[in-house]
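Section 4.2 – Deliverable D4.2 (structural model, holo form)

The reporting period included a commitment to supply a predicted holo structure for the target in complex with adenosine-5'-triphosphate. Inputs used:
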Amino acid sequence: MAGLKIRNLKKSFGGNAVINNISFDVREGEFCILLGPSGCGKTTVLRLIAGLEHQDEGEIFIGDREVSTLTPGERDIAMVFQSYALYPHLNAYENMAFPLRIRKRPREETDRKVREAAGLLGIGDLLHRKPKELSGGQRQRVAIGRAIVRSPELFLFDEPLSNLDAKLRGSMRVELAGLHQKLGATMIYVTHDQVEAMTLGEKIILLDRGEIQQTGTPRQIYEKPLNLFVATFIGSPPINLLRGRMVVEGGRTFFRSGELQIDAGAVKQLQQYAGREVTMGVRPESLSPGDGPVKGRVELVEHLGAETLVYVRVGEARVTAKAPPDFEKKTGEKISLAMSERGIHFFCNGVRINRY
Ligand code: ATP
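Output (structure tokens):
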């Protein structure tokens, strides 16, 4: 196993810059997620790492070895695709054994590795079946098994769970996390699904339009989004955004939006934004029914069992709050919401300006 180092990677297709000067590191044994909306360049980064595309500029290192100009075969990487890419005429065993056969590994070694990987993935009794005789989840396991048998330096996964139904996706996610722990392998995993990223990743690299917006642990990204894009991309239901202005009075800073006034504290760093237009972001779980500054009317109540989502009209805006399961107010009733200070984020020109 080895870590990965990417430096100043650039790639254009037909004059369109798709990857715009990207640099990042993945530690040996780390599970790193490349996350971002459709078309942001995730797959292109993965294909550049694998050597399936060539960068216009920049360097790629696997461990201490620069692989920027090597062929895919020379890079010692295994890639698992969304489409599984299994050979339809070969059974599960032969599909998994394939990478070792073409490397002319001894028959006994191949057999041992295939059976070990099959055991790890719980498909030991399906090895005689052809892909068309397997379910989506089983096919995906065979594709992962085919990657494991090679013991590569690096695993690359390109949206491997997106063809599965929601329930299976959930259980495969748990299996993949377990597999990562067992193998201790360096894995880079592409997804546009923020829930998958938050639950699987040790590190998330969030991309938009070919640029890194933020790198960090799932918690860092959720709790301290560096900009509005990150704040809105991560979190479900999404973060509430209210547009307003910073006002300084008596040495304290306030955020005003229509009737709403929030004490932003005595934080000096925010005073420089006095008079400026800012956006306040507050996550639904930081807003709950109670004595607080946010006053409005209930628009809709969604009882989800363990919790209740309450949609509240506040002046021109609509916010989502989280309430306990026994919340009883009905549409049209007045409501006030308490806000936890830690859940408040301020943004000016799209960039986060508070530090707590
Ligand atoms: P998705 O989640 O939809 O797969 P992505 O983030 O993986 O998206 P990429 O597949 O990396 O995005 O594509 C990034 C951009 O580069 C897109 O606008 C895409 O149309 C463009 N692109 C990718 N490959 C090529 C190519 N071979 N030729 C021209 N344009 C390409």
